[in-house]
Fold Putative acetyltransferase.
Amino acid sequence: MRIRNETIADIPAIRALISTAFAAKDHSSQTEAAIVDALRRNRALSATLVAEDEGQIVGHIAFSPVMINRRDLGWYGLGPLAVTPERQGEGIGTRLVKDGLGAILKLGAQGCVLLGDPGYYGRFGFKADARLRLADYPAEYFQALCFSGEMPSGMVTYDAAFDLTNDEASRHGP
């Protein structure tokens, strides 16, 4: 298996992978594939990697810039992360997260935030921090990893692509 940057030719496989990976997740809005498409359209994907095994895309991760108190402080949001269901538990997600964090560090990232399972993301150093908030989400699931300097404080906002509703996602399509 190898981790590499996505290419234009990968987009249909990425869309299918993300849709399949989130289909049975209770916490999913079922808009994750449309969010990645919208991030791509908005030119807001800073790093996007795929895991490829024997010519098949089996994992994907996306990073996009976030604002803190409406200011660009060099922070990024991780998400979504998707691994094909039959390959989950094999370390594919772990490799994508580690390589993806390395990719945004090369871009000069000061830190990274995500909304996800503390048990999973804690192994990478992510933890909830009351100084950073994401509106309308439980604080324990919104986690941060500071790479340099002090942890900023304030309200975090993602690209508008993350605000897609199911209706909007189906209208926009790929």
